[in-house]
């Protein structure tokens, strides 16, 4: 057979026999149908055992195997195929992302792998590529067997080899190299002949490559196989990865003739070698390894890599008697932004957050994305809490500037929990857990801050888990009750409105007030369901009183920040009012200043939409939040509620009295109503009346009471002081 007759095969034969094995019936049918449409002769097997049985009855050019089949898995099928049909190529499919399993399959002879879910175009491309390679291999084997005794055909094999073939003299100088070196590395063969083999090697691999050839036990039966990087021509910084197989040869077997195409010096050869380009395989391995240990969105280390580095850092710190810190970071308001602007914007925000956080790190610190909007940070070699505090403050400061996403200026904060080794944890899991607990305490303290872990937090956390379980049950059973505290006209003593306040009669802990469980509801995401139940009950009760002869009665309801920030807040609230046929003009929602200042533009639009329906807006705990009063004239505010801490100062005559005076005077100037909270004594009531305060509420007229006790109070023209007042 002449070289001209040995043309490379074109595409794989359309009637190539393919075995498809997978335990997922839908995937198996999809793969089989797809291959049949392309003309392949397909045999289906719904299990590993079925695949082995099919291979015993029929030969195949290619097997497409699922790795994780129950019973007989893909690895067992591969082993059986290698013994029964060694020429059958194997492609594996797997939903497993572990680099270990994929690498194991490749080492056992798999020619390629496809990750589930399978992309049809990718599948067909890989199948045809593998069959093409198999066809080339079979052709190559056929040529080799037929032309083994022919020197001219040996030369043909060398010159048409897909690999670089080279020979070295006893000192390591190149005495022959085939033409393939020009296609793969850009060198002409004559440029390299006569030069030392080290000139081709990357500087970092030169010593290792030369040492392998000088090993005393190298022989034709024991060749050296090593992976090295070879330089490309023109750009010395560019390298490609090659697998080199080299062994000594008898110089008498090499014909000293210049007829062989390629470079040849005519000198006796001492070593024969083949260099196979494995760059694509190495890149695939590197990518699989990156996927296994990094977050693909932010390119940060993932949870697995972070734990590995933390474990190593603890070992070093223990041996060197040093300290380290673990920080647990959670983004504030990320969910609202993600729900409002969409997941694509949320992903861009996470990438921007990553860039800012990385600018706050020291060399040697490890920042990882732990999952969702949670990050962890490892700070090795710290001297104490001050080092950690400075980095925490630096990160919080980095979030003060808004993130620009297209036309949106997005504000997001960060809550940070910190655990110090070995003071607050000596193991990897304990440090992460304690930092996580401290982060939740930072959120409970107002968000956008940091908190160091302390032992008392573990006790609180255990109680928190128990309380969370009980709260979920209470919500499912609708066991929470709504009480009402009258808002009384300071001049006439008549009840003008009622503030709805939730209470929980816990079976073991007794009566719990909002401060005992609302922060937990906010933190665990139960606040939405809780608030809906409270508003449903309050609208039902107040609706009865309004229809029973008190048409001007106002219902005041507190709203949590997460409710107001939710993109469906206005729609949900109006739907609840419509469900209960509750008049919008009788409802007053109470929000805090902090909620408004988190995103003034967005909140102002929502409040204006509500005000347009007749709903009144009140600022609760006025004076305790932001000092900027710019929002008062920008928002449809109707009422200011003076915080009870200022009202309490009337009795002691401290600086809080001046704040009460200022708030009431300002409200008069802006034509806003005033409600003073926490009024308990005659002295406080008379002082507020002299200032012109419109309404008061507090223990002076009694605590919040169940709905059954409210109806009689509404019929009293002047509410008397309570005995508890």
From TrEMBL:
Residues 322-455 form the GGDEF domain. It catalyses: 3',3'-c-di-GMP + H2O = 5'-phosphoguanylyl(3'->5')guanosine + H(+). GO terms for molecular function: cyclic-guanylate-specific phosphodiesterase activity; kinase activity. Coiled coil: none annotated. Residues 17-131 form the Response regulatory domain. InterPro entries: Biofilm_reg_signaling, CheY-like_superfamily, EAL_dom, EAL_sf, GGDEF_dom, Nucleotide_cyclase, PAS, PAS-like_dom_sf. It is an enzyme of class 3 (hydrolase). Residues 150-205 form the PAS domain. Keywords: c-di-GMP, Kinase, Transferase. Its EC number is 3.1.4.52. One of its GO terms (biological process) is cellular response to nitric oxide. This is cyclic-guanylate-specific phosphodiesterase. It holds the Pfam family Response_reg. Residues 464-718 form the EAL domain. Its cofactor is Mg(2+).
